[in-house]
Amino acid sequence: MSRHLEATIETFPISGSFTISRGSKTEAEVITCVVSENGISGRGECVPYKRYGESLDGVMAEIEAVADAIRAGLTREELQRRMKPGAARNAIDCALWDLEAKLGGRRVADMIGATSRKPFVTAFTLSLGEPEAMAAEAGRNAHRPLLKVKLGTDNDEARLRAVRDAAPAARIIVDANEGWTEENLTRHMAIAAETNVSLIEQPLPAGRDAALGRIRRLVSVCADESVHATEDLESLRDRYDAVNIKLDKTGGLTEALAMKAEAQRLGFAVMIGCMVGSSLAMAPAVLLAQDADYADLDGPLLLARDRPGGLRYEGSLVYPPEADLWG
């Protein structure tokens, strides 16, 4: 078997800027991996994430380190043992899924037994900002059924109340991105309950979240930075009610499928999330999210420009990918 592997860095401008508690950015920097065999190509996209010690150069080096093995026919199963979870493995794993489907004349949805291929509601993310700015953005998107609100400051009450007033009918997910503390956790959670928040994502820093197991959780709490792979789940049962599965954390669709099945077995609610990337990064996650409790796959909606032939969005509805895009 002889395959060709190519990895390239691409940049997609963000519409305005995207701000969370750790900082802002104005563009999405992604790595696209293409694996070709017999004139047929499979693609995958990853987003290196600084929070997890990743960089564009570092991820490119990880991909190059397994290039010879990929060209020699390394399988997805072998890839799981060869590479650690993370962005580099995600790009290759998804490219191999896409290639396998195209070589076999099949769809990935059939290969993973996806029971539904219908459009579903994705959250739409509001960046962290001053209360007035967040209220204005919430008002512009008040028609959307599910909003994800970036918080993570010492005093988020004004921000959350302003968003709720501007979008009274929307379901709200709060994402603190590890920005709350044990000292303000109870107060912020009470405000979230009062404003009818459906879910709070990663309120405390990963590794310093034991307090979540000692308090009465007035709102369901979802792990993000605290959970990366299947082996993490068991230890989180005392402090989280849900888990956010992202392909860039799990290292691809292969591990994400196993993690989702185990999370559901353990009784966690499941969110399928994303980094800010193009439709190519979202496509496999859309299939994974078909029966999830929450989907946060709005990456392309935050871009000023997506890939040609990207996912179809109608308001907050996202449709499964066409074969020309992925899978």
TrEMBL record:
Enzyme active site: K150, K246
Limits of the Mandelate racemase/muconate lactonizing enzyme C-terminal domain: 131-222
InterPro entries: DgoD-like, Dipeptide_epimerase, Enolase-like_C_sf, Enolase-like_N, Enolase_C-like, Mandelate_racemase_C, Mandelate_racemase_N_dom
Cofactor binding, per record: Binds 1 Mg(2+) ion per subunit.
Spans through the membrane: 266-289
Source organism, top-level taxon: Bacteria
Protein name per UniProt: Dipeptide epimerase
The organism of origin for this protein: Neorhizobium galegae bv. orientalis str. HAMBI 540
